[in-house]
């Protein structure tokens, strides 16, 4: 794994249905209110490779677990280093970049069906300065997913997510020691979670 740290890069992780997407937007708004330059994005991205990943997740096309792991890695490479909108270059300009998922998701999800060390090898990317993991039990996540009323994606099954949860915790315990990690109880209210995250960010960057 790449040992470098990408400054001003904040990553949110967690199981499907944990509430990441809402917290990404809340934190971005908080930083904007502090007059900070900020942008947020997600993985899979909306780029051509990311759209292919989404097609697999939504059962429109089929491929092998290893090929899917490689697609995620390729999408991440583009997310980071695309000359027009790569977050690597954005952070170099002093902008805060917040991502809904990063390589920890590959380590958690793809490693269920592909060797963990292989997934780690193909995700040799810079680590974020901040990693926020929203911890919600699998059963609660599945209830939230059911409430969406949409067809479940490829990985949204209990047996699979139990393994993903275990992989997430292993990946976080073994992450780059220079990355600052916050594990949040995702069963709290949206406001309570946001307050805890904002305090952590403000304290780390000296905004308070």
Automatic annotation (TrEMBL):
Job of this protein:
Phosphorylation of dTMP to form dTDP in both de novo and salvage pathways of dTTP synthesis.
Q: Which species is the source of this protein?
A: Bullifex porci
- Protein family (similarity comment): Belongs to the thymidylate kinase family.
Query: What biological process terms from GO does the record include?
Result: dTDP biosynthetic process; dTTP biosynthetic process; dUDP biosynthetic process
Annotated ATP binding lies at: 14-21
One Gene Ontology molecular-function label: ATP binding
Q: What is this protein called?
A: Thymidylate kinase
Could you tell me which residue ranges the Thymidylate kinase-like domain spans?
12-197
Keyword Transferase recorded:
yes
């Amino acid at each position: 794994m790449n040992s470098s740290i990408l400054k001003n890069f904040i990553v949110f992780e967690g199981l499907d249905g944990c509430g990441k997407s809402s917290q990404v937007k809340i934190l971005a708004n908080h930083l904007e209110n502090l007059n900070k330059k900020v942008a947020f994005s997600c993985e899979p991205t909306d780029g051509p490779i990311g759209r292919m990943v989404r097609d697999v997740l939504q059962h429109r096309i089929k491929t092998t677990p290893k090929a899917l792991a490689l697609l995620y890695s390729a999408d991440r490479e583009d997310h980071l280093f695309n000359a027009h909108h790569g977050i690597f270059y954005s952070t170099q300009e002093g902008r805060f970049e917040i991502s809904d998922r990063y390589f920890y998701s590959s380590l958690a999800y793809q490693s269920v069906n592909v060797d963990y060390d292989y997934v780690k090898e193909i995700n040799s990317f810079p680590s974020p300065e901040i990693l926020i993991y929203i911890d919600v039990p699998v059963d609660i996540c599945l209830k939230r997913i059911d409430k969406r009323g949409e067809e479940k994606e490829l990985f949204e099954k209990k047996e699979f997510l139990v393994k993903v949860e275990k992989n997430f915790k292993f990946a976080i315990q073994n992450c780059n020691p220079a990355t600052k990690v916050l594990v949040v109880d995702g069963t709290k209210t949206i406001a309570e979670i946001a307050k805890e995250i904002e305090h952590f960010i403000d304290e780390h960057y000296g905004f308070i």
